[in-house]
Design brief:
By secondary structure, the chain is of the alpha/beta class. Helix content is about 35%, strand content about 20%. It contains 17 helices and 18 strands. It is globular, with a radius of gyration of 23 Å.
Length: about 500
């Protein structure tokens, strides 16, 4: 009998029952007041007069009226850069101990996003809340005695001018609680290896020594790791070496496009739980099995706002127009795409994180990620979100019985006419003309704006199939393998030309 597992499961179930009914709106009001109160004496807080703002009748509306929107470049140039010049108390009291490096999905240049002790604690607390929510998933007691393999970036952080820098997954893993270290794999020594291929090789070598119950990481890199372990030990599937693997915590991107190829590496079904951890903080996690939507972490160190994702509010570069209206949690509606804004205990204020979301349950504050503001394919009026593109790829998988774990596309001008040029990552072979027809027909049916565009300026669809490994090689060449690195689903023409040159070179 799994005595320790039963005790842990029992504690989690009791803790979840005692936590009571949540009120996300009230939690968000408390979070904003805490942020304003804590930061009122910072340079930023004095500039925008947080002291007076806290005494106004409706500080939430006044907060939105008084403080402009910030993307990374804007807040970094005006405020965060001062931290690197040695200033303190800039947008949050003191100076951050960490900076999260993030190239996101749009380029090579790393952003340096401050991560304070308060944010580390906030991420840790959100992680605990997700653990408590496991009581909803009816997992067996012995699951709580198994190891958890977290495949993130290296925990060997770089020391720079009195602080440490690395990806958020590496920063989080380097701050795991003491009680968790016995469960944590691959362990501190392997986790510190900077070279991703070397780290995965070590994981493959050590795999027989671990009893893994759960995996956590971005799907594309997790698949490559599982493939490496399977190949290294000449297995048919990963359950032959980790028979107790029951839960996969996905994160950062929608799991849907990877589901079919991921499942092909398994020997039996598992529970997949979505998580939304960004460089700027722990945004949301899936709290119950009836849905794959995620519950916003409304009682942590993040205050959320939402801007309706409409063409009149979005600039060409994905930023917001100055007059774009923002809503708080009490004002949002179902089935509407919103640009997500956050203000945090790391000193981000009305910060455009770059993702678009929609609400699936207002009372529970549950959301789904629908895309990226910069990856919204709106050339010649087609208005396709990443969500719709993912649906189209899954349709191809089901229609032709194939696996397409990766893809990218561009609205490309060819002989003065626009085409949607797709690259599908698949080892399977299907007649190209059938893929083109099925993709085009599905999107016409699923999106009226696309259907209209196809009758006018959008001439047609082109499809090229390449090996999925090309996508990870591209990321390795342009950014870095592993960690939080994700493939850009939609590219501009200049970047797409680089991609096509890369593919043509035989990579």
């Amino acid at each position: 009998m799994p005595i320790i597992g039963s005790l842990i499961k029992g504690f989690i179930e009791v803790r979840d029952k005692l936590s009571g009914e949540r009120n996300p709106i009230e939690e968000q009001q408390s979070v904003l007041r805490h942020l304003l109160e804590t930061a009122k004496n910072t340079t930023f807080g004095k500039h925008y007069d947080f002291e007076t703002l806290l005494t106004t009748e409706n500080s939430f509306e006044e907060f939105a009226r008084r403080i402009p929107y910030f993307d990374y470049n804007k807040i970094n140039e005006a405020w965060w850069q001062r931290l690197h010049d040695g200033e303190t108390d800039v947008t949050w009291p003191g100076t951050p101990d960490y900076f999260a490096l993030s190239s996101g999905t749009t380029g090579k240049t790393s952003k340096r996003i401050p991560v304070t002790d308060e944010m580390v604690q906030s991420i840790r607390q959100a992680g605990l809340e997700q653990v408590y929510a496991l009581s909803n998933f009816d997992l067996p007691a012995d699951f709580f005695e198994k190891g958890i393999l977290m495949l993130g970036s290296s925990t060997d952080l770089n020391e720079v001018d009195g602080h440490e820098e690395g990806e958020i997954s590496g920063i989080s893993a380097s701050n795991i609680p003491t009680w968790f270290r016995g469960y944590y794999k691959p362990g501190e020594e392997i986790a510190e290896i900077d070279d991703w291929d070397e780290r995965v090789q070590k994981i493959a070598e050590e795999a027989p020594n671990w009893d893994i119950g759960a995996l956590s990481g971005i799907p594309s890199w997790m698949e490559l790791m599982l493939q490496k372990v399977i190949a290294y030990h000449n297995l048919n599937n990963i359950h032959e070496i980790w028979p107790n693997f029951q839960v996969y915590t996905s994160g950062g991107v929608a799991f849907g496009p990877y589901e079919k190829s991921f499942n092909s590496l398994l020997g039996k079904p598992i529970t997949v739980i979505d998580t939304y951890l960004a460089s700027e903080g722990f945004i949301a996690f899936q709290a119950r099995p009836e849905t794959d939507a995620m519950q916003l972490v409304t009682d942590g160190g993040i205050y959320f706002e939402f801007v309706p994702f409409k063409p009149e509010y979005i600039n060409q570069d994905g930023s917001l127009t100055d007059d774009a209206p923002s809503l708080n949690l009490s004002q949002v509606e179902l089935d509407q795409d919103y640009v997500l804004l956050i203000s945090t205990v790391s000193g981000a204020w009305r910060y455009i994180i770059g993702d678009t979301i929609e609400f699936t349950d207002l009372k529970k504050a549950e959301i789904k990620i629908t895309g990226r503001t910069k990856f919204f394919l709106n050339t010649v009026g087609s208005q396709l979100s990443v969500n719709k593109l993912n649906d189209a790829v899954q349709h191809l998988e089901e229609r032709f019985g194939i696996k397409i774990p990766e893809y990218t596309l561009c609205a490309k001008r060819i002989d003065d006419e626009f085409y949607h040029c797709w690259y599908l990552g698949s080892e399977d072979t299907v007649d190209n003309s059938k893929l083109v027809e099925a993709l085009d027909d599905f999107l016409k049916e699923a999106n009226k704006n696309y259907r209209v565009a196809r009758s006018k300026a959008l001439k047609g669809v082109k499809v090229t199939t390449v090996s999925p490994i090309v996508f990870s090689d591209w990321n390795g060449k342009n950014k870095k393998k592993g960690g939080q690195v994700k493939m850009e689903r939609v590219m501009g023409e200049e970047k797409f030309q680089e991609w096509e040159d890369f593919v043509a070179e035989g990579n």
